[in-house]
Design brief:
heterotrimer, A alpha/beta (about 500), B mainly alpha (about 350), C alpha/beta (about 350), A: about 500 residues, alpha/beta, Rossmann fold, six-stranded mixed β-sheet, about 35% helix, about 25% strand, C: alpha/beta, 2 domains, 12 helices
């Protein structure tokens, strides 16, 4: 191959409390799709955000077309022909497609600052034609599907005449057909000599699209291989590393036949369609599926956070009516949101307050005064039980690490005498070491007899933790697997089992 | 949903969106028409007439100052911010105009320019506080509200400043267009023409210029704008400057209207301006809004005020009704956003 | 889908509007003329109705003082066979809203206007229009600085404040420090009461030192803060004069909070429950009362005279003022002009 388009070497990045990147090397050739894989938190996005000027590197060298460059901000990256499509889409929903694409460099008329809307729309249309995309430049972005919005992002990235295009998890929210369309465009761009970085942890699709694969783990670049030379298994073993396999405990058998929670024929619009499942005492049930499969929606519906159209919820065989989170808590159901900072914790308050928040009623004496002696004892007990690493009960939750925060949320629900716990992506954004602690905690809780539902997009996590796995797709339960029979391929088969196109 | 020929996308959705937009615009305008007809019916019932040229002129004149104030506020609210200082920035602009013309004996146009620029300067300070020092707009502009209010009192030694005699300023703003009397003493008031001209300019600024585009972009998704290479701090600051300039213009108009600079007046007008903006359909959460809506919103506020007094509704009740209308408007804004979500 | 959405919005719009209208229609005393007089002619009904319609544009409407003026006007109107509409801006800083109110009243073609200007000069052009349309204008309270009003119905505030100064001097023995808190220095009443009190002191009691005057906008809390800071700087203050209801109430609050009741001589203005309580309880020596009910009544009396064609009036109609304290607070003559 020719001279590399891009070369990053010795890149280091430190965030408060975390060494995010250690001596990372990465290169990209023109006309290449280079996949970047690794578990959550491995450092893929961080490395690429340094390239895009979102973060600044602590040390290391970036060479573009042979000459060393400094990328202090996004505008510089754009000028250098580096564009990144972020995982969370960065569009302005109130603006039209064309306005979004050319934001920051609108064509201007003869008068300064006066927009040339016609040229704007024509430029966008020309761009779409080149990419063979069917998009209306005048349409508001808020009216587009997620896939269409992604196409807008790609078009926008390319409108900078980008020679380096970084796509962070572009397929996460797309349907198969939409993924095909994305890959078509990816190949077209590769043909035109663009260097493309494709961040993903869907290993199957790497085979379809990438030329080389770089694997990252815990902030290190583990290896870069030609896709054709590596098997999926080899890539997985590089991603996961030895340590995790060692730590993986046996999934204990569940023998307790007592059904704690049963959900029958739950329906809510198109998001939840005829979902039924049950959870036993001491059992961890994993819910697997792609983003948008309706997993979180099911948890929220059972918890009463969203209204349901129809369906029954039984606890210990008795039908209960849950019309809001208050009812759910009353019936011993706890929900640990995937976005714990937004929904699970009061970040500005201390550990003690957070721990007793869901059960404050129990600690209130006469005259409505909180009995602080009791709350302290209760919080103390949980801190010891769960080994919550906090200097004191009066530490603000904001200052704790992600894993410890997660434990505080768990402590909150345990204090509330919760019997059924929904964990929604319990390890998202948590570093590897803390992950195994969360896993141990889940096992311990199950051992104590709690009924646990764990939603996760991380297939290895689902496989190693669950006694039983429910797979969802498009709001329906498409399959159920025991721990013994489950593997990634079977789960993925169910997770992509779409309804026949109507 | 059927595919219209020639369109690459299902036409149903985009068609519905356009119609919904049209309807929303119609909603405010329709409310204004309904309101006017409502008062006309009431007036006929008590034996008088609401639809007179005199009433029209009175409403135009009453709306002008707050209308101009609301134009600038629209920009800030579209970015998802708020400017609480416009009322007292109006005051200090009015005071500066009067100080220049009376105690400094400068020509009237210089006084007008100084008043206008005073507004811009206060807007600039707001902008620096919000965009560069990253203070919450509510707090930053609340602070400037008091600074401007206090400075106005200091500059005037708490006494009104009167324009000595007629220097063409007051009659120039408050007179009739081309001096033509259309009905009795009443012609088309120049102050209303100035408001409409300011509104046209604001609409141009918002709809056709880079500034307007970034105003929407900031309100819609500031982070996306930043990642797209937009100089967020600079443009946000400019939005507050624009708001200040309109407040300055409103101050000049107010000075002409009152024939003086009143250091204690102005405080409270920011709430009328914000009401007008919100009633006009601009979302307090940012990202959407129109100048036309704001102008209609301002008229709704003043038709309501004028009409209720005209039919002799007791003042206490006038205040209650105005409050209900604002709540109703915000509620509709909420519904609309839920529809969009 | 789309139609449903539109329908929902339309429904809300209609509801919102009907909510407004129903509130408004249930408002009491909304119509100046009986609904039966629906005239076919578009001519304004206010003047063609049997009862003359008198517009009263005041400086405020929320304070008890203005409510008393309003009551006096309405009672007098009832006996004279007239209709009045009493309105005023929310605060005394609302110069422009007061102009809008004048415009609206002018459009109603009233038989007469009674007006207390927040800013006489600002109101000048509009008053000119009243004169052009031959609508008689009666000024009241602080009056209108213009030749247009036929007469001004008001208290002689200079003389009243001078009386307060005499009472103060007598109470503190003719020497010492006296704090003065006035509502503002821009309105006619503020200027008259401040200068009336100060000039009297200067002329007759050279041994009394005046602290202030300070201006508290007639706001109770603000006036209380002013009184406290004056006391902190001058612990030997022997007395306070409060130039209106809010000012003296602020002083009373300050004295209560500092537990100085009875140790400082307080003299106030107007009435209102807190002041009456303070006088009865001994915290306040006494106060000047105007005759707000009389002001309202005299407005209507003079307006009716003008409507009936009288063209020459005295320049001022003095509605009088009275000193009241613990000794005469139950006197029926005093009780008649006090308000709570």
């Amino acid at each position: 191959m020719a001279e590399p388009l891009l070369e990053m070497s010795g890149i280091e990045k430190h965030f408060p409390g975390v060494q995010a990147l250690v001596d990372c090397h990465f290169d990209l050739f023109p006309g290449e799709v280079h996949a970047l894989v690794g578990e959550n938190g491995a450092g893929k996005s961080t490395l690429m955000k340094i390239l895009d000027g979102v973060y600044e590197r602590d040390s290391g060298v970036i060479k573009l077309k042979g000459s060393e460059v400094d990328i202090p901000n996004t505008a510089t990256a754009q000028r250098l022909g580096i564009s990144m499509i972020h995982q969370e889409l960065n569009l302005m929903p109130h603006l039209t497609v064309a306005q979004n694409i050319f934001i920051g460099r609108e064509p201007q008329g003869r008068l300064p600052f006066v927009l040339d809307e016609r040229a704007l729309n024509e430029n966008a249309a020309a761009l779409f034609e080149k990419l063979r995309l069917h998009l209306d430049p005048r349409k508001r972005v808020s009216a587009l599907t997620v896939a269409q919005q992604q196409m807008v992002e790609i078009a926008k990235a390319l409108s900078f005449n980008a020679s380096v295009l970084i796509m962070d998890e572009p397929t996460a929210a797309l349907t198969d057909k939409e993924i095909d369309e994305l890959f078509r465009i990816t190949r077209q761009l590769r043909g035109e000599g663009v260097g493309i970085v494709h961040i993903s942890h869907r290993l199957q699709e790497l085979k379809q699209i990438s030329d080389r694969v770089t694997v990252m783990r815990d902030g290190h670049v583990i290896n870069t291989v030609a896709t054709a030379d590596a098997t999926v298994e080899q890539i997985i073993s590089m991603m996961v590393g030895r340590t995790i396999f060692e730590a993986a405990p046996e999934v204990p058998e569940v023998t307790n036949p007592e059904v704690v929670l049963e959900v029958r024929n739950l329906n809510r619009g198109r998001a939840i369609r005829d979902v039924s499942f049950s959870v036993h005492r001491g059992e961890i049930v994993g819910i697997a599926g792609l983003v948008g499969a309706g997993r979180t929606e099911v948890a929220r519906a059972v918890f009463g956070a969203d209204p349901i159209d129809s369906g029954e919820i039984l606890i210990h065989g008795k039908k209960v009516k849950i019309s809001g989170p208050i009812d759910a808590v009353h019936h011993g159901i706890g929900y640990l949101s995937e976005d714990r900072k937004r929904y699970g914790l009061a970040l500005g308050l201390n550990v003690e307050t957070n721990v007793v928040m869901a059960s404050l009623q129990r600690f209130v004496g006469r005259l409505g005064i909180v009995r602080s002696g009791l709350t302290r004892v209760a919080a103390e007990r949980q801190v010891q039980n769960l080994a919550i690493k906090t200097p004191s009960l009066s530490q603000r939750v904001r200052n704790l690490s992600g894993g410890t925060q997660q434990k505080v949320v768990v402590a909150k629900w345990l204090t509330a005498d919760t019997e059924i716990l929904f964990f929604d992506e319990p390890t998202r954004g948590i570093d590897v070491g803390a992950k195994s602690e969360i896993y141990q905690l889940l096992n311990a809780l199950a051992h104590e007899g709690k009924a646990i539902v764990m939603i996760s997009s991380d297939l290895p996590e689902i496989l190693r933790m669950s006694h039983r796995i429910i797979v969802m797709c498009e709001g329906r339960v498409t399959g159920e697997l025991t721990a013994a029979e489950a593997n990634q391929e079977k789960i993925m088969t169910f997770a992509t089992q779409r309804e026949a196109a109507a | 949903m059927s595919n219209a020929p020639g369109l690459p996308l299902p036409a149903g959705r985009s068609g519905a969106l356009i119609r919904a937009d049209f309807f929303q615009r119609f909603l405010a305008f329709g409310a204004l028409i309904v309101l006017i007809l409502f008062f006309q019916v009431w007036c006929v019932a008590i034996g008088t007439n609401f639809l007179t040229f005199e009433n029209l002129v009175n409403i135009l004149v009453a709306t002008a100052v707050v209308g101009v104030l609301a134009l600038g506020e629209t920009f800030v609210i579209i970015t998802g911010g708020i400017d609480l200082s416009v009322g007292t920035v109006l005051t200090i602009s009015m005071v500066m105009t009067a100080v220049c013309i009376t105690s400094q004996h400068l020509p009237v146009p210089v006084g007008i320019l100084v008043g206008f620029l005073t507004g811009g300067l206060m807007g600039l300070i707001n902008g620096v506080l919000v965009a560069h020092l990253k203070l919450a707009p509510f707090i930053a502009t609340l602070g400037i509200l008091n600074v401007a209010r206090g400075l106005s009192l200091v500059l005037t030694q708490t006494r009104p400043i009167y324009f000595a005699g007629d220097n063409g300023f007051q009659s120039g703003v408050m007179g009739n267009l081309f001096g033509v009397k259309l009905s009795g003493e009443f012609g088309i008031p120049i102050i209303a023409i100035l408001m409409f001209a300011a509104a046209l300019f604001a609409a141009f600024l918002l709809g056709k210029t880079v500034l307007g585009r970034y105003t929407f972009a900031l309100g819609s998704n500031e982070e996306a704008a930043r990642l797209s290479g937009v100089n967020v701090a600079k443009w946000k600051m400019l939005v507050y400057v624009v708001c200040g300039l309109f407040a300055g213009l409103a101050g000049v108009l107010s000075a002409a209207r009152l024939g003086s600079a009143q250091p204690a007046t102005g405080f409270g007008l920011e709430l009328s301006a914000i009401s007008a903006v919100v009633i006009g359909g601009t979302s307090l959460s940012g990202g959407e809004g129109t100048i036309l809506g704001t102008v209609i919103g301002a008229f709704i506020v003043y038709v309501l005020t004028y009409g209720l007094q005209f039919v002799n509704v007791p003042q206490e009740w006038q205040i209650v009704v105005t409050g209900i209308v604002v709540i109703g408007a915000v509620y509709i804004d909420n519904l609309r956003r839920r529809q969009r979500a | 889908m789309a139609n449903k959405r539109l329908l929902a919005l339309a429904t809300v719009a209609v509801l919102a509007l009907s909510a407004c209208s129903s509130t408004a229609t249930t408002a009491p005393a909304a119509t100046p003329a009986p609904a039966g007089t629906t005239a076919a002619t578009p001519a304004p009904a206010a003047t063609t109705a049997a009862k003359p319609y008198i517009s009263i544009v005041s400086k405020g409407f929320q304070h008890q003082f203005w409510q008393a003026v309003k009551k006096g006007a309405e009672d007098e109107a009832a006996t004279e066979g007239a209709t009045v509409n009493f309105i005023g801006p929310n605060t005394e800083a609302d110069v422009q809203p007061q102009l809008d109110m004048l415009n609206t009243e002018l459009a109603k073609k009233p038989a007469a206007l009674c007006f207390a200007a927040l800013d006489s000069k600002a109101a000048g052009p509009i008053l000119q229009k009243f004169q052009d349309q031959k609508i008689p204008v009666i000024a009241f309270d602080s009056g209108v600085d213009s030749t247009i009003p036929l007469t001004t119905v008001a208290t002689d505030n200079v003389a009243a404040a001078a009386l307060a100064a005499d009472k103060m001097a007598a109470a503190i023995g003719g020497s010492g420090k006296v704090g003065v808190i006035i509502h503002d220095q821009t309105s006619r009443t503020g200027i008259d009461r401040g200068t009336g009190f100060l000039n009297e002191m200067k002329a007759k009691y050279p041994n009394i030192k005046i602290i202030g005057p300070q201006y508290g906008a007639g706001d109770v809390a603000k006036s209380a803060d002013l009184a406290k800071s004056m006391l902190a700087a001058n612990p030997d203050i022997k007395g306070f004069f409060g130039g209106n209801e809010g000012s003296i109430e602020g002083v009373i609050n300050a004295v209560n909070e500092l537990h100085l009741n009875g140790k400082i001589t307080l003299i106030g203005y107007d009435s209102g429950q807190p002041q009456l309580d303070a006088i009865n309880g001994g915290t306040e020596l006494g106060a000047i009362t105007q005759n707000p009910i009389g002001i309202g009544a005299q407005c209507v009396v003079n307006a009716m005279k003008a409507i009936k064609g009288q063209t020459t009036f005295d320049k001022n109609v003095d509605t009088g003022f009275m000193w009241y304290d613990k000794t005469n607070i139950t006197d029926p003559k005093i009780v008649a002009v006090l308000y709570k």
